Amino acid sequence: MIMDLELQLNTAIKAAILAGEEILKVYQTEDFQVVSKEDFTPVTKADKNAHKKIQEILQSTQLPILSEEGIHTAFQERQKWEYYWLVDPLDGTKEFIKRNDEFTVNIALMHKTEPIAGIIYVPVFRILYAGIIGQGAYKLAYPELDCNFQELIIQGQKLPVSNNSTDFVVATSRSHMNAETQNYIDRLKTEHENLKLAAIGSALKLALIAEGSIDVYPKIGKTMEWDTASGHAILKAAGKNIYLHDLKTELVYNKKDLANPDFIAC
């Protein structure tokens, strides 16, 4: 099967922007309709509306969709998928509920166990990050609804953006810091006198590594495949990656258990 990656990504860009509009409609109200899922993580009306919009648009690609808020297809079936979409309609629900603006729409195009193209859209700031492995990663502010990857190449910033800072910046989770992560950061401090911490919510951390304003994001603790896939694709398109703690083995997807192991993005 020959896949037109740009054509697929253009559809996903539209889906991400429209999902972002659905999220903002709820964000501007007083009623998020927050409930707790079986794993005790929160879900809101915005998560559900964004999922519905993305599913509606991506259905035209005729590829399977694995979304955090959708039906999770059994491993026996999805292990047969060659190409599929891996989606987090609203990544950073806790940040959404706290109204700190650091939440994203994540859509990744997957080939078997690898992300090959991805989008991170930041609805509040209307910033679009997108990348296709082998074709580069780009950032564009205020994209039009009919924005496509060629427009990103022409009008956007190619990632990484040159950064003259001498600081070594480590991203930390705004909502999920733990002792193991702190110990890892303490070890990094012995190697980098100019180490700075940046607490950031959602997959925005991965986008900022691709951009070059953050150097590393160590994640010791639970994440799911839909949390990282889009950012992983953008990182690889920008010449970076997500590794296990040996800094050699790349993070893989479509596992029987959809939880990620601990990883380091850099």
How would you describe this protein?
The protein is of the alpha+beta class and 266 residues long. The chain has two domains: 5-159, Fructose-1,6-Bisphosphatase, Chain A, domain 1; 168-265, 3-Layer(aba) Sandwich (D-Maltodextrin-Binding Protein, domain 2), CATH 3.40.190.80. The chain is 33% helix and 26% strand. It has eight helices and 14 strands. It has a seven-stranded mixed beta sheet, with helices on both faces. A three-stranded antiparallel beta sheet has the order 12-14-13, sandwiched between helices. Strand 5 and strand 6 (114-122) form a beta hairpin. The longest helix has 23 residues, at 5-27. The radius of gyration is 17 Å and the shape is globular. The mean pLDDT is 93.
Topology record:
Blueprint: H1 5-27, E1 35-36, E2 42-43, H2 45-58, E3 65-67, H3 75-78, E4 83-91, H4 93-98, E5 104-111, E6 114-122, E7 127-132, E8 136-141, H5 149-155, E9 157-159, E10 168-173, H6 179-191, E11 195-200, H7 204-211, E12 217-219, H8 225-237, E13 242-243, E14 263-265
Parallel strand pairs: 3-4, 10-11
Antiparallel strand pairs: 1-2, 4-5, 5-6, 6-7, 7-8, 8-9, 12-14, 13-14
Helix pairs in contact: 1-2, 7-8
